[in-house]
Request: fold
Amino acid sequence: MTVTWEESGWEQLAPGVGRRRLPGWDCTAGLVAGADAVLAVDAGSSLAEGARLRSEARELTGRRVTHLALTHPHFDHVLGAPAFADAEVYGAVGLDVALAGRGRDELRADAVRWGLDPAEADAAVAALVPPRHAVSGEWTLDLGGGRQALLANVGPGHTAYDLVVLVAGDPEVVFCGDLVEESDEPQAGPDAVPSRWPDALDRLLRLGGEDAVYVPGHGAVVDAAFVRAQRDALAARFGVSE
Reply:
């Protein structure tokens, strides 16, 4: 039996499209339902959180998640991915390398540093499987019933592997990952590429246009004006010429 978006704690952004603000790090997870397939955007910070998202997605759509897009390789977005073991997983080119070997050690250390229980971090990292599908430019997913989702590699910026998801419709919805943040200033860690970040936001804005709904990796939904202002602030912050 399906439930409504409101009953489930999800925010509906357009017909068949919604997002959830997860507790702890206020990380966003997205959901796009077509007639034949269901796409999740990011997977939460642990196996338990990923499993909850998977279960809620089934309650909302009546079907399993068939596709998972990972916007970038930070623990609060990817450590729940093993809970979607039967989904086709997509990421920007190079994300598979970032989530393997030494990258796993760094991912685990980062998760624990930010407060994830070490045992939960160990379990999630051990189960993590790199994405099967690498997006180098753009990749369109046909979810059925006229529903399409465009996966676009617009980075680097927040990381070297930034993927965004554009869902056509009225309105269009753009899942931005942490290229855009509303609840705090955009976080530029050691894996950020600040000199390229403003360009990544320019590409994101060209994809979505002026009337799209933009979904940050953290915080409330914003509009194009907010994204443009954040782009300009990042350019000033990092001394990037216009």
The chain has eight helices and twelve strands. The chain has a mean pLDDT of 95.
